[in-house]
Amino acid sequence: YVTDERKKKLAFTDTWYYQGEGMLVPADSTLANREEAEGLTLGAVTGTTHADLALTLTDESDLKLFDTQANLIQAVANGQVDAAFTDQAVVAWSLVQNPNDKVKLVTPYEPYFPGTIAAAFRQDAESDELREELNGALADLKATPQYLEILKKYGLGEDNVAE
Questions:
Q1: Domains, the chain, ranges and CATH?
Q2: Of 3, 15, 60, 72, which is least packed with CB atoms within 10 Å of its CB?
Q3: How confident is the model at residue 1 (pLDDT cuts 50, 70, 90)?
Q4: What is the pTM of this model?
């Protein structure tokens, strides 16, 4: 993530894509946003900000924590939780690698913790030159349909497109 704090120490390229947490639900779920998950049994990976988010929507007794992303996905698939919050890009790629027709990511979805993804560089002249070259190539790619195709290859989509 590009943050103001990280910008103090690093130089970033232009934005590659946007992402935040994702909301994973059973394939037959009608849940369309996090507000509809309020008061339900929710899941997240232990120690993540996603667990903190889930606690704003449900009681601690209705929050189930899992040690891995794979176990979280399985809990949604098996109906142990009504919805789960996790890193959107990670779960999207997990579902590309291991398709599971028992779950889906809610889309479109407006993340509570939106993030900007870019490459980080040292703050020096040599890195600035390389970063600018990369920005030029990135701008060229974003101007083509191939940019969205690449995002889709990894389970992302139009919601993740950076300007």
A1: 4-17+115-157 (3.40.190.10), 21-105 (3.40.190.10)
A2: 60
A3: confident
A4: 0.80
